[in-house]
């Protein structure tokens, strides 16, 4: 009996999930390394996988923004051509209007697809699988000591949403304003804490201490995110200053990518370390990333000169 009103999960998806759970259990049975791991010893791997996921997301955002910028420049030139084309189209027979409109609509839909390269989507999928591995691993460690398994983890997720997002369990789907979402989430969160504290009895004070520590961590994370945003703004200003006295690595990369596309090269023909300079950034020493990127741009410019000649 389903506890939620929802569309059925495709069997193919359930098969993959079941395989992942079964393989994690088998790996723990057979692998000496897996058997030696604990929740604590896995934490560095979880942090590493989370950072790698964040880097891929940054690369995707950069890719989409770069494409949008290039398309914006192309649209400026295309507007004049479009106006002339409309004049020519207006002289066509009325019978072709429907077909022409359909072609235009199809073209628009096609242009709206494929903002992110397929290989980059696959990289995102792979990084998410690494994070999933960490969840499965921790759940299996707990399962081995008889505490809980991955089913209980999924059940805890459902229970949390039932408490904090009750509209997801209504028989009829509806659009929910963000203000209502925020209110329900905070109300559910507060209710859960109060009920949990009462149910724990003598362990209640320890639970309160844990929750307060988690809140401190969350606040610290928000402050860290704010600091990163300020640093990002400062970096943008520094790059603007650098562009007036000499190109930064990122600016040089954007310029050479634009030049390569004007020469008719596809993105796949542009070196990956120029298209996605953030990948591998953690391996560079301070100041090395910009130099490495500039060297890559210079080498590629030499190659472009040979193509032009």
UniProtKB/TrEMBL annotation:
Chain residue ranges for the region called Disordered: 66-115, 176-202, 221-250
GO terms, molecular function: nucleoside triphosphate diphosphatase activity
SUPFAM superfamilies: all-alpha NTP pyrophosphatases
Classification via Pfam families: MazG (PF03819)
Biased composition (Polar residues): 90-109
GO biological process: dATP catabolic process; dGTP catabolic process; dTTP catabolic process; dUTP catabolic process; TTP catabolic process; UTP catabolic process
Compositionally biased residues, Low complexity: 236-249
Ranges annotated as biased composition (Basic and acidic residues): 176-200
Gene3D superfamilies registered for this protein in UniProt: MazG-like (1.10.287.1080)
Highest taxon listed in the record's lineage: Bacteria
Domain named NTP pyrophosphohydrolase MazG-like: residues: 121-169
Protein name: NTP pyrophosphohydrolase MazG-like domain-containing protein
Source organism per UniProt: Corynebacterium anserum
Lineage, top ranks: Bacteria, Bacillati, Actinomycetota, Actinomycetes, Mycobacteriales
């Amino acid at each position: 009996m389903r506890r939620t009103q929802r569309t059925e999960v495709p069997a193919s998806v359930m098969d993959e999930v079941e395989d992942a759970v079964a393989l994690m259990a088998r790996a723990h049975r057979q692998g000496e390394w897996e058997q030696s791991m604990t929740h604590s010893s896995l934490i560095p791997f979880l942090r590493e996988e989370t950072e790698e996921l964040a880097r891929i997301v940054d690369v995707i955002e950069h890719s989409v923004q770069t494409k949008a910028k290039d398309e914006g420049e192309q649209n400026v030139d295309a507007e004049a051509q479009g106006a002339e084309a409309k004049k020519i189209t207006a002289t066509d027979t009325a019978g072709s209007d429907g077909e022409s409109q359909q072609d235009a609509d199809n073209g628009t839909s096609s242009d709206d697809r494929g903002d992110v390269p397929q290989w980059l989507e696959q990289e995102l999928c792979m990084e998410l699988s690494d994070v999933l591995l960490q969840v499965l691993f921790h759940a299996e460690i707990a399962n081995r000591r008889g505490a809980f398994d991955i089913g209980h983890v999924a059940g805890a997720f459902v229970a949390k949403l039932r408490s904090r997002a009750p509209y997801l369990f209504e028989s009829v789907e509806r659009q929910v304003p963000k203000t209502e979402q925020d209110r329900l989430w905070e109300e559910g969160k507060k209710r859960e804490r109060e009920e949990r504290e009462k149910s724990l009895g003598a362990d209640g004070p320890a639970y309160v201490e844990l929750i307060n520590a988690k809140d401190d961590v969350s606040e610290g994370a928000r402050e860290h995110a704010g600091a990163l945003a300020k640093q990002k703004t400062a970096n943008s200003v520094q790059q603007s200053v650098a562009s007036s006295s000499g190109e930064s690595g990122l600016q040089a990369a954007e310029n050479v990518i634009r030049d390569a596309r004007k020469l008719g090269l596809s993105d796949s023909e542009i070196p990956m370390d120029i298209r996605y300079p953030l990948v591998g950034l953690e391996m560079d020493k301070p100041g090395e990333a910009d130099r490495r990127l500039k060297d890559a741009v210079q080498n590629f410019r030499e190659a472009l000169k040979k193509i032009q000649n």
